[in-house]
Amino acid sequence: MSEVAVVALFVAKPGKEEELRQVLEANVEPTRKEPGALQYDLHRDIKEPRRFIFVERWESEAALAKHGESAHIQAFRAKSPDLCEHGEVRVASKIL
């Protein structure tokens, strides 16, 4: 198994910043308890406060895939069209 890193970026629709923040924050603790979760940190862009960024590390792509199937992530996906203007998830493998 090879560790993977994830950077997930979500931009709130205007006026939905705090609602999106609450929904994203609700994912942190359950995700940190998932098997294979090594790091799961939520950040907010200092200059663009509508932009939220997750920095994640997972033991494997399989662990990340199970995360995507979790109830809390499925709930977020159901709410995200109303809250997010843009979302992007990048998965990478470590080189050095």
TrEMBL record:
Record keywords, A-Z: Monooxygenase, Oxidoreductase
Entry annotated with the keyword Disulfide bond: no
GO molecular function: monooxygenase activity
ABM domain ranges (all copies): 4-95
Cross-referenced Pfam families: ABM (PF03992)
Family matches, as InterPro entries: ABM_dom (IPR007138), AI-2_Isomerase_LsrG (IPR050744), Dimeric_a/b-barrel (IPR011008)
Name listed for the protein in its UniProt record: Antibiotic biosynthesis monooxygenase
